[in-house]
Design a protein that fits this description.
The chain is mainly alpha-helical. It has one domain. Helix content is 75%, strand content 9%. It has eight helices and two strands. The protein has a two-stranded antiparallel ribbon. 29% of the residues are buried.
Length: 220
């Protein structure tokens, strides 16, 4: 179920992005919107199952991803109460946006491309909120930045749209720099980018508190 929630928007993006011209605007709208509605319904099922169930954190493995020296990062979905809340928010809002856009964009000849971008944006957001490690979260962050750039510059023949897209792109690169610094710093401290390892170690790694206690001992 959780794989379907995350990857249905990606499937919609791939189908419409690759074959949207052949399928036509109406079919592209119905495919992407239909997949998002299914994902939203499954998100609500997950919300009631996890949110009102045992509430334990678990991961859904997808594939092995990065293994280089001391750096290991698998592609997995971290499912907890916060995750299922965000799944409901992202997929429900995105499904409504898809449905609303069917009428709002009815005059535009490039509707398949627009709906493909919307589904890509949703998939990137889902990658962000289900990430099991910092590298996967960064991947989702980059995907959101890419999809934002594509959507903002959708009407690329307008100079104002191009200028806004470039501005968003530059601002995201500034955010990337800070994000990467945080990832590097946490990896140096904890030797891992996995959230489970970081959360388990953070409780016992309190250098500020230790320094304060040491200072009190010296003063006494």
């Amino acid at each position: 179920m959780y794989q379907a929630i995350v990857f249905l928007p990606l499937l919609g993006f791939l189908i419409v992005g690759l074959f949207g011209t052949s399928l036509g605007a109406k079919a592209s709208e119905y495919i992407t919107s239909g997949f998002l509605v299914i994902a939203a319904v499954l998100s609500w099922v997950a919300f009631f199952t996890v949110g009102f169930g045992h509430g334990e954190v678990f991961t859904v493995p997808v594939m092995r991803w990065i293994q280089s020296g001391g750096l290991e990062a698998a592609w997995a979905l971290r499912i907890d109460t916060l995750t299922v809340v965000m799944l409901v928010v992202v997929n429900t809002v995105s499904a409504l946006v898809h449905i609303y856009s069917i009428g709002y964009m009815h005059h535009d000849p490039n509707r398949p491309r627009f709906f493909a971008y919307l589904s890509l944006f949703t998939f990137a957001m889902l990658m962000l909120v289900t990430s099991d490690n910092l590298v996967q979260m960064f991947f989702g962050w980059e995907g959101v930045g890419l999809a934002s750039y594509l959507l903002i510059g959708f009407w690329y023949k307008k100079p104002s749209a191009n200028a806004a897209a470039i501005k968003a792109f530059v601002v995201n690169r500034v955010g990337d720099f800070g994000f990467l610094l945080g990832i590097f710093g946490l990896f140096v401290l904890f030797g891992s980018v996995e959230f489970s390892t970081i959360f388990a170690s953070a409780a016992s790694y309190l250098p500020a508190e230790g320094a304060a206690e040491h200072g009190d001992t010296v003063l006494n």
